[in-house]
Amino acid sequence: MAASGEALTPSGYIDHHLTHLSTYKLGLTGDGFWNFHIDSLVFAVLTGMIFIWVFRSVAKKATSGVPGKLQCFVELLVEFVDTNVKDTFHGRNPLIAPLALTIFCWIFLMNLMDLVPIDFIPYPAEHWLGIPYLKIVPTADVNITMAMSLGVFFLMIYYSIKIKGTGGFVKELALHPFNHWSMIPFNLMLEIVSLLAKPISLGMRLFGNMFAGEVVFILIAALMPWWAQWLGSVPWAIFHILVITIQAFVFMMLTIVYLSQAHEDADH
């Protein structure tokens, strides 16, 4: 698949499928800070709207009688997330359970796009709509995963200061793990690095796993003839179902844990 209509070599095919439809590629911005990956943003918003639409529809049609299959599924999801929040979060905040549910379902739907055949959407988009590049897995874009992790990070800082106060938050950084004034520089260095590592590891873990999974699908499509690709893609897709679910669950659980820590009073 190529914008020029010429057949691509395997390396060209791989490079093509790893290229985002960005404002830079469209000549709208430079290749810098204001370069937006349009495809990642569109599919992230689209999957988010699907999540909202499905849950809103179920909520409007919910019945206390015999529920439908979709209502049963949504209720199971809500109960699953609520149980994990109650077991993990030790504060009192009505935001945490809805946030955890949103994170789990949204990330799962974005991850699920990785199971769509490689050329199923990009091929018609290029040949029918003239869109030269298209990556449909938002969580295989580090900008999306890091943006989500930074959102969690800002909530951590906000609730840490709200619950403990500015003085308590600073004191927690300065006097932990060694509660002595002479160790303040060492404590600050240790705690700030630990604090910053949380959003970085949260975002990079999700990105790394989903990007690796996407690359495997691209390699199978690039290196195997079309009639034999199912021999590689189907087993990998079956295994990848577990990966996309685990990654959504891990992101949700770490968010709950980090926000639970932010609600705990410092003990010095």
Please describe what this structure looks like.
- With 268 residues, this protein is mainly α.
- It has one domain.
- It has 8 helices and no strands.
Provide the fold topology.
Layout: H1 10-17, H2 38-61, H3 69-88, H4 96-112, H5 122-129, H6 142-174, H7 184-223, H8 230-262
Poorly predicted ranges: 1-5
Number of helices: 8
- In total, the number of domains comes to 1
Please bin the fraction of helical residues: 55-70%
Q: Key terms for this structure?
A:
268 residues, mainly alpha, 8 helices
Quick take:
By secondary structure, the chain is mainly α.
